[in-house]
Amino acid sequence: MSDRQEEQEGERRLERIKRTWGKRVALALPLINLLIAIHKIVDEWVLPFV
User: Fold this and answer.
1) Number of C-alpha atoms within 13 angstroms, CB side, residue 47?
2) Could you list the residue ranges that cross the membrane (predicted)?
């Protein structure tokens, strides 16, 4: 019985890790896109005047 419980707990832990990484990636993508957009704006609009 204890072996089965450990296996089930291990599977649950893996699912939780996958979910947290998925959420982290989902939250990071808009931030990365925002940084890229700011970089492009600075390159095109700010640097030519400096």
Assistant:
1) 7
2) 21-42
The confidence score (pLDDT) of residue 50 equals: 79
Q: Is the dihedral of CA 43, 46, 49, 50 positive or negative?
A: negative
| Residue 18 CB-half CA count within 13 A | 6
d(C-alpha 36, C-alpha 42), whole Å: 10
Chain position carrying tokens 């291990």 = 10
Please tell me the distance from the alpha carbon of residue 33 to that of residue 21, in angstroms, as a whole number: 18
Tens-place pLDDT, residues 3-48: 556 556 556 666 666 668 888 889 899 999 999 999 999 999 988 8
Residue 20: alpha-carbon gap to chain centroid? 9
